[in-house]
Amino acid sequence: MMRHAYSDLRPYVCIVEGCDADPMDFASRAEFAVHLASHQHIWLWTCKKCDFAEENQQLVEEHIYLAHTLSEESDEVDISKKILRDISIQQCPFCREIPGAVSFVGHICHHLEEVSLAALPQAELEEDDQGG
């Protein structure tokens, strides 16, 4: 019904805080789902020597080299990781429901599509519904 409108509107904007992905990259729910899967798990990286922790692995590795004076050739980078959060079991940022892992992407897409359609003039929507 409205699929061609969604491919023109590009309603799929990443909901993950700090993600700078271009919404123009996602022409379909499928493309958006692939992107969201890259955010499925947010990792927390930790220096085992002092418990310095960060979501960015490179920052923790830099910390280890600087704070614990390791050479870049050293294989002694003592780092651990654990899942900080799984976005597929988070609250929906639009309605605060917890849709669950199976329906998370579809749930979020539905909200994003509703928002994008609200930006269209009503006449365009009526014309589209009539096959125009």
In short, what is this structure?
The chain is α+β, with helices and mostly antiparallel strands and 132 residues long. The protein contains 5 helices and 3 strands.
Domain unit count: 1
Derived from helix and strand composition plus strand pairing, the structural class reads alpha+beta
Radius of gyration: 21 Å
Task: Name the helix and strand elements from N-terminus to C-terminus, one letter apiece.
Answer: HHEEHEHH
- Proportion of beta-strand residues: 5-15%
Q: Number of helical segments?
A: 5
Poorly predicted runs of 5 or more residues: none
Mean pLDDT: 81
Please count the beta strands (DSSP E, at least 2 residues each): 3
The largest sheet has its strands arranged as: 2-1-3
Sum up the overall morphology in one term: elongated
What is the terminal separation in angstroms? 11 Å
What's the layout of helices and strands?
Elements: H1 3-9, H2 29-38, E1 41-47, E2 53-54, H3 57-67, E3 79-86, H4 104-118, H5 122-129
Antiparallel strand pairs: 1-2, 1-3
Protein name: C2H2-type domain-containing protein
Organism: Trichoglossum hirsutum
InterPro entries: Znf_C2H2_type
Task: Provide structural commentary.
The chain has 132 residues and is of the alpha+beta class. It has one domain. The chain has helices at 3-9, 29-38, 57-67, 104-118, 122-129, and strands spanning 41-47, 53-54, 79-86. The chain has a three-stranded antiparallel β-sheet, covered by helices on one side. A hairpin with a 5-residue loop joins strand 1 and strand 2. The chain is elongated and about 70 Å long. The mean pLDDT is 81.
